[in-house]
């Protein structure tokens, strides 16, 4: 059982550039959410949707929120990435076909880092 005094490391964080783009998209589209499904092409990038345009289900894992936007990942992807902290960043380019940042000249990009032993123990212990 995890000690309640231990602060759990966030499973997902965002860079300042990503937070800026999230805020821009929230002003334009209202509440938004992210989904990371895995796969190839657009499926390998974090996708951003207006709330209500993408429905999450029992096979999705809620990782937390970035910039006020809830972040979900498919269960199979979570099983693969559970030992890492996901870092959402922004780079120049075109977003996924259905992702809200498409057309802004920027796209969300997933980076990651391995949790250290203490973080892993806190999250999974």
Automatic annotation (TrEMBL):
Q: Which domain of life is it from?
A: Bacteria
The protein depicted here goes by the name Acetaldehyde dehydrogenase
**Organism this protein belongs to:** Methylobacterium indicum
Q: What taxonomic ancestry is recorded?
A: Bacteria, Pseudomonadati, Pseudomonadota, Alphaproteobacteria, Hyphomicrobiales
